[in-house]
Amino acid sequence: MKFFFLLIFSASIIADYSDYTYSDKTSSYNSFGQVGLIQTPTANSKDEGTIAITLNRNDIWKFGTLTVSPFNWLEASYFYYRPSDLIWAGDNIPGHELDKGFNVKFKFSSKNKNLPEVAVGLDDFAGTGYFTREYIVTTKEFRSMKASLGVGWGKYAGNNSYKNPLSFIASSTINRPQTSDNYGKGGTLSYDKWFRGNASLFGGVEFFIPKTNGLKLKVEYDPYDYFDFSSMENRPDALYDLRKKDSNINFGLSYPINKYITLETSYIKGNTFNLSLIIGLTFNNNTSSKPKFEPNIKTVENKTKSKLVFYEDLLSNLNSNRLLLQTASLSNKKVDILISSADHRNAIRSSSYAAQISNTIANLHDIDINLINISHINAGIELNNITYVASHLDKDSFTPLEVKRLYTQTSPGNSDNYKKHEFKPNVIFPAIFTQVNPAIVSYIGNPERFYFGGLDLQTLTEIQFSRNLLLTSEINYSIYNNFQDTVSGPGSKMEHVRTDKVQYLKEANLYIKRLQLDYIWSPYENIYAKISGGLFESMFGGFGGQVLYKPFNNNFTLGAESFYVRQRDYKQLFDFRDYRTSTSHINASYLFPMGVEANLSFGRYLAKDDGYTLDISRSTKSGFKAGIYFSRTNVSAELFGEGSFDKGFYWQIPLDILSSDYRGGYSAFKLSPLTRDGGAKLMFEKDLRGMIFNSTSNELNTQWNDGYLN
């Protein structure tokens, strides 16, 4: 430990006299996917909207971590761990054990840049307890390095531990319980252990090597007792030497190959080489530039300049810019236009572009207009009304964006408004849209292997029989998979509403994943409804409905859904199994400042258990969204099985964030640590909570900060 303090002191002197500049002083990840040094964390964090995958390997273990930073003060990670020296009961072979868990870190920063950053972390706080540890760490950045010093409990308390420094606050913190209700089983919070028992110091220094494109040298004091770092059970005596520790000092190098990939190598515990590969990306802003909106306006030369010619020009020019005109009406120096666009998530952007085109066409036709009202439609529902002052759209007026925003008015959509419009282009129904794609099918977290997967040929089809009546299908053909290699059964005492997933994956060849018919409408302003029937997902089909109340001038929504379903046959065609049930939920959500949304759902789940689901997410200004959720039902932890209750995390990435043009879709990822039957919800397409978007004043107002409005 004396070496550590000497290193800090020496590094501070070097930093004060450094005359170099450094191309990359960003924080890096440690072996466990946390922003840190080599094995220990620091108080630093990544920018909000950052996702990283850390793959770590040495002689002791393989370690994989997914890390998400919804805020620049919050870091959450989910890890898989396969030790080389533990035996899995499934085949009695060392190296086949698989453990998993969650880590979380909260950072506290001061506006005073001279003060260090401080972070508090909980590792494996809801897992088996094999990695359970807590820490408080502080980090100070100098010109050429960062220095960190922390105190840790639990697995941090190695051979050089000392009495808990928090014992002066409460004597109950002196001793740490040796066992917990979930120790070795996982799933519940081990709060009875947090910050209790002996503690150890840890820390180190991260040097920025000048003129090396971001190379960093890391040196740290490592307090871990590796024999106590995970389960002591089921470990062959012949492999004990893997855990032997010859030194408390670890050192290593971190080199960013590019802005997405970092390679780290280190020498830990005095006898083991350690290698990490980190792949990370920040989705806080668009990572590629978009072209300036310069529509190519073409107008028909017609001396009559009639309304019909104006409408036809409007139709041609809006459609050529992929702002598809649905209806229009011109009267009293105001033009009302209804559009549909799959290319723009931002309604302010798409409406602004449509209004610019409309204003130009009106000027070319010598039509005097003062106001241009743009509405968006989805599944026959008018989502909003956005009204612009026409004179603010002239290129020669140079109207500042702030002024344009001040005079632009927004209001809720009206389900009957567009039906009264004067110009209604002919729409030929049924309209059929089909695309064929390769699709990766994954099964993550099986105890035999981290990843099982395959490749499907996927056909997605949507048939619009009318604006409100839609048929959606997904038909897949399995080209290749390794699902036959897994032998794990469901191991569940509940109805197998989810734990038969492997069986569905094994028997699927040519299969119908989804075949769903929906009728969607808005009976009253701010109220939306849907009736659905068909094959909702791989495992269930049936019928049901959904209703949503989403007031325009409020940040809350209320909804309800109810379905009667029957379990599908493993081959996923048109046959069903005997199990049938009804599932219903009442949903409430509230949008807080900074893009934080909380969703609470009460009701009955697929396995006939009753309870609630809490979902908390954060959206950045780029549209990136990350969230966590958990469900608690009236099922006991013993009946639920390993994990105790359902939980997981997810994120969704806008497709256009990496693209040079605009796209309206998202790429979504969801991970639940274990496939269990408790707390299982029905999955269905055309969820009203996702379809009714850009329909509130808050959603529209936040879109003015897009950066591509011109």
Give descriptors for this structure:
single chain, 710 residues, mainly beta, twelve-stranded antiparallel β-barrel, globular
Q: Could you outline the blueprint of secondary structure elements for this entry?
A:
Blueprint: H1 2-16, E1 50-57, E2 61-71, E3 74-83, E4 99-108, E5 117-123, E6 133-141, E7 145-154, E8 199-208, E9 216-221, E10 249-256, E11 261-268, E12 272-282, H2 307-320, E13 324-331, E14 334-340, H3 347-364, E15 371-378, E16 381-389, H4 401-407, E17 409-412, E18 431-444, E19 451-464, E20 469-481, H5 501-507, E21 510-524, E22 527-535, E23 540-549, E24 556-568, E25 576-591, E26 596-604, E27 610-619, E28 625-633, H6 637-640, E29 646-654, E30 666-671, H7 688-691, H8 697-701
Parallel strand pairs: 14-15
Antiparallel strand pairs: 1-2, 1-12, 2-3, 3-4, 4-5, 5-6, 6-7, 7-8, 8-9, 9-10, 10-11, 11-12, 13-14, 15-16, 16-17, 18-19, 19-20, 20-21, 21-22, 22-23, 23-24, 24-25, 25-26, 26-27, 27-28, 28-29, 29-30
3D structure, described in words:
With 710 residues, this protein is mainly beta. Helices cover 10% and strands 41% of the residues. It is built from eight helices and 30 strands. The strands form three sheets. The chain has a 13-stranded antiparallel beta sheet, with no helix packed on it. A twelve-stranded antiparallel beta barrel has the order 1-2-3-4-5-6-7-8-9-10-11-12. The chain has a five-stranded mixed beta sheet with strand order 13-14-15-16-17. Helix 2 (307-320) packs across helix 3.
